Amino acid sequence: MKLNNIRLIGPGLFTLLLLITSCEDFLTQQPRLQQTNDIALSTFRGLTEATIGAYSPLYSTSWYGRDFVITSDLKTGNAKISPVTSGRFTIEYQWANNSSNTVDLWTSAYDLIARANNVINALEGFSETGVDQADLDNLKGECLFLRALGYFDLVRFYSQPYSSGPENPGVPVVLVTEIGKPARKTVGEVYQQIVADLTVAEGILYLDNDHFGADPKAWATQGAVKALLARVYLYMENWQKAADYASEVIGSDDYFLYDTLSYTTWDNGGVWGTDAGAEIIFEVYGAEGNSSHGNFDVISYILSPDGYGDVGASLDLYNLFESEDIRRQLFRSHPDYPEGIWSLKYPGKNGNLREDNIPVLRLSEMYLIRAEALLQGATAGRVEPLEDYNAIRVARGLEEAFTVTLNDIYDERRRELCFEGHQLFDLARTKRSLTRNDYGGSANKDVPFPDFKWAMPIIQAEIDANENMVQNEGY
Question: Which of 28, 51, 130, 401 is the most exposed place for a label (fewest CB within 10 A)?
């Protein structure tokens, strides 16, 4: 498979973009530079290839391929700069980002959104002899899911949390790929678009999805949409809908909690979700053949002392695990650096440290979402929050607890979801200040909430090119 980009570079947020992932015989139908949106997206095959290509930016080093995930844990005390450091991520570690030195999720996410828009808009009124409408709807559902995920990650990263006020500045919402200079929508308006996209996708996506026999957990499905809606509603503090969607995923019997034997990733070559008890609902499939592959800058390389190893685990996190907790085994030391600890959540695939799948949505999170929502007043039949809390504890080799509080759920989210890109946003949405003990930086050891620094600065290139773009306060 090959990945090919055709762009007209213009000012402001968007480039006019067409991305197609295609087999060689498809590309040879016309010279590459003569491919246009109208031609490439005029057949079901072309639309399918373009949909597959829309997933690619998720694996970029600025998104799930590394920076988005690493930044969340490094800024919030789960991770720290290790004894093996080249200086990478010290800015994020010390909360010292500025518009010229900020994680460029902006470009990768809007790249994906542009690709998704191309397909969504090309599907309007489209028909082809021999192609069922359900197949066309499924492509649309995939792209709506991807667009919603892109906007959700953007608004969490570059804006203050929804709980601080839906009227706060969000990010631009663009539904047609074109050269332009869009202004920011409010946080509330962005969330409305996310919910709208996911609601439509929920009704048209297949239960199972498999393109070319690749990892089935790497494609959008109804289960993935419902899981993302559960998370989105949690952030919106719509406790009942969060509980409802989490319950749908839990009750589907399509996913199962890992037991203590199958939890550790090195037992299955680092390929999350390939065993019979798969927790994975949606993941980013990592392979060196992906055009967004970061070479040696991938997440597994930066987290391993056998790679670059710049980012280690903190004692603040490690000490949260009880001795019997199977998750404690997902940390390692190194004989050359006995004072350091590193996460083993991304051990590489079958000995290849430059490939790893990155979990985005897991069943365990659904239990934790429902437990939190129930503690906040939602209902889920006869289910009690303690049941969901204990479901995780027992699966991780621990004894059942007798009581559960919101702080217990917050700590359990930190243990269960560490190094998956959650802690920064969990602190922000629950309006909790950051306190770090195991910290080796020179500034911002503790960060109060509220503070302007909880929203990352928008990249300077966007500010320079788009006079309608307003930078976040404080930068």
Answer: 130
Confidence of residue 85 (pLDDT cuts 50, 70, 90): confident
| Tens digit of each residue's pLDDT (9 = 90 or more) over 6-61 | 232 233 554 333 333 333 322 233 333 334 566 789 999 999 999 999 999 999 99
Long-range (24+ apart) CB contacts under 8 A made by 177-180 are 177/14, 177/16, 177/17, 177/114, 177/115, 177/117, 177/118, 177/121, 178/14, 178/16, 179/8, 179/10, 179/11, 179/12, 179/14, 179/15, 179/16, 180/12, 180/13, 180/14
User: Could you write out the DSSP letters of every residue in 87-112?
Assistant: STTHHHHTT--BTTBS--HHHHHHHH
Rounded to whole angstroms, the Cα distance separating 433 from 427 reads 7
CB 214 within 8 A of CB 285: yes
How far apart CA 71 and CA 53 sit, in angstroms, is 26
Per DSSP (E only), the strands in 98-173 are none
| Whether 373 contacts 286, CB under 8 Å | no
Which of 273 and 237 is assigned the larger pLDDT? Answer: 237
Written as six digits, the tokens of 74 are: 């490094």
**The two three-digit tokens of residue 126, written as one number:** 């489209």
- Give the residue from 227, 159, 146 showing the smallest Cα distance to 190: 159
pTM above 0.70, yes or no: yes
Coil, strand or helix at 18 = strand
Kindly list the structural domains of the chain, giving each domain's residue range(s) and its CATH number in brackets, ordered by start.
Answer: 1-61+104-205 (1.25.40.890)
Q: Mean pLDDT, the chain, as a whole number? A: 89
117: tokens are 């828009």
